[in-house]
Inverse folding.
C-alpha cells in the first residue's frame, strides 16, 4: 500500500493525474455566472437586529438547519451523546455579542437557539479546503502584492444555497468583507485592510494532544466556556485598532488553546500558515508562495513503512483520515505544480483563477473559490465563484 505522499506524485516529482481519489470525482463542475448575494451588516446597531435582512431572505434555507445539524453530528465520534448535550446545554456561545446575534436570528426565523449554537460551533468539522498566498503582479510594472487564494469544499449540500458575501459596516465605512453562509457568525474566509484570513479543517493524525483533552475542549465549546476558532478569527477580523502582525499571530496561536485546524493569514507582502494543534502550533511564513490543504507538511515526507506504523498505532480510527489526507496531498501538489510551471515568470490574477478552477483543486465538493486582496481599503474580495454539485 502506497503512502498518501507517494500516491500524490509521480516518480519525477510532478503531479500524477492517473490515480483518482475516492471522495473527489471527475464529474463536470458547473460554476455560477453571478457572485453570491451581497449583504451589509452594520456593527453599530444592536446585535439582535444585524441579520434581519439575511434572515428574511434565507428563512426557508435556514429552516433546513435541523437536517444540517444531524449531518454534522453524524461525523462526530458520539452523535447521540452530543445530540443530548446540545439539546440540554447549548444555550449560548462564548461571545456575549454573538449570543445576542444568535437570539435575534432565532426570533426572526423561529429556529431553536440550540440548533443555531450548534451550527455556529461545529460548522468547520470535516470541511476540505485549500488556502494559500501567492505573490502576484498588480498590473503595474514590477509592482507585486500578496493575494490570498481560497477554495472551500464541503459534503453538506444544503449549504450551497446559503453562500453569501458580507460587508461589515462601522460608521458608514466598510471595515471587513467575508464569504460565509447565511446564519453563520464566525469567520471561515474574510479580509480587512492589511490582513486576510481563512480556516481549513485539520484531521488529528500528527498531534501532541490527547483525545481526552480534545474532547474536554469541545465540551467547553458546547458549554460556551471557550470560543470556537471561527469566533476567534472573527474577533481578529473585526477588532478596531492596529492590525496584528504575522509575528503576533504566530505567537498567539503557538501559545493559545484552540481547536485543531489550519489557519492562513496574508498581509499585502507575506503569507503565514499555522498548523494548529490544541495547545501548540507549527508555523510557516513566506513572501513568495505557500499553500495548505488538510494535512501537516511533515506528513508529506513519511515513507510507506512510517504510514503503516501510524495506522497500526491508530488502528481503525485512521481509516477515513488516511484517504482524506491522500486526497489533500493531491490537491496541494496540483497547486504547487501549477506554481512551479510559472518558473520565474510573474503570476497574474487570471493565473490564480485558472488554478482555482483546475481539478482536483476544484472538485465536486467545492462550494466556492475566491481571491482576497488585503491591500485594499476595507479588504478586497477580488473574485468569488460558487459551484454546483
Amino acid at each position: 500500500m502506497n503512502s498518501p505522499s507517494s500516491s500524490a506524485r509521480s516518480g519525477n516529482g510532478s503531479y500524477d493525474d492517473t490515480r483518482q481519489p475516492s471522495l473527489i470525482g471527475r464529474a463536470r463542475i458547473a460554476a455560477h455566472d453571478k457572485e453570491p448575494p451581497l449583504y451589509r451588516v452594520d456593527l453599530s446597531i444592536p446585535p439582535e437586529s444585524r441579520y434581519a435582512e439575511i434572515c428574511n431572505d434565507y428563512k426557508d434555507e435556514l429552516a433546513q438547519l435541523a437536517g444540517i445539524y444531524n449531518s454534522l453530528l453524524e461525523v462526530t465520534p458520539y452523535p447521540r451523546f452530543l445530540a443530548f448535550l446540545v439539546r440540554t446545554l447549548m444555550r449560548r456561545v462564548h461571545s456575549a455579542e454573538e449570543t445576542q446575534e444568535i437570539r435575534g436570528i432565532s426570533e426572526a426565523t423561529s429556529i431553536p437557539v440550540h440548533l443555531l449554537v450548534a451550527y455556529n460551533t461545529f460548522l468547520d468539522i470535516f470541511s476540505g479546503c485549500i488556502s494559500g498566498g501567492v505573490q502576484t503582479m498588480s498590473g503595474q510594472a514590477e509592482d507585486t502584492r500578496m493575494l490570498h487564494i481560497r477554495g472551500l469544499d464541503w459534503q453538506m449540500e444544503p449549504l450551497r444555497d446559503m453562500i453569501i458575501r458580507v460587508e461589515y459596516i462601522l460608521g458608514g465605512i466598510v471595515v471587513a468583507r467575508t464569504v460565509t453562509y447565511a446564519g453563520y457568525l464566525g469567520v471561515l474566509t474574510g479580509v480587512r485592510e492589511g490582513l486576510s484570513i481563512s480556516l481549513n479543517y485539520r484531521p488529528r493524525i500528527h498531534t501532541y494532544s490527547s483525545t481526552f483533552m480534545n474532547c474536554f475542549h469541545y465540551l467547553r465549546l458546547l458549554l460556551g466556556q471557550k470560543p470556537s476558532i471561527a469566533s476567534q478569527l472573527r474577533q481578529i477580523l473585526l477588532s478596531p485598532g492596529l492590525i496584528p502582525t504575522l509575528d503576533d499571530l504566530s505567537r498567539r496561536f503557538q501559545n493559545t488553546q484552540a481547536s485543531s485546524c489550519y489557519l492562513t493569514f496574508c498581509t499585502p507582502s507575506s503569507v503565514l500558515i499555522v498548523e494548529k494543534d490544541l495547545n501548540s502550533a507549527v508555523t510557516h511564513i513566506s513572501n513568495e508562495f505557500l499553500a495548505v490543504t488538510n494535512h501537516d507538511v511533515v506528513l508529506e515526507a513519511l515513507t510507506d513503512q512510517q504510514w503503516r506504523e501510524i495506522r497500526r498505532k491508530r488502528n481503525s480510527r485512521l481509516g477515513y483520515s488516511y484517504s482524506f489526507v491522500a486526497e489533500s496531498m493531491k490537491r496541494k501538489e496540483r497547486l504547487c505544480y501549477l506554481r512551479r510551471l510559472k518558473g520565474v515568470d510573474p503570476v497574474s490574477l487570471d493565473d490564480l483563477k485558472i488554478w482555482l478552477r483546475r481539478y482536483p483543486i476544484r472538485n465536486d465538493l467545492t462550494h466556492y473559490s475566491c481571491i482576497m486582496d488585503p491591500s485594499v481599503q476595507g479588504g478586497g474580495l477580488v473574485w468569488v465563484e460558487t459551484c454546483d454539485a
Q: What stands out?
A: The longest strand covers residues 128-137. The mean pLDDT is 87. The two ends are 31 Å apart (CA to CA).
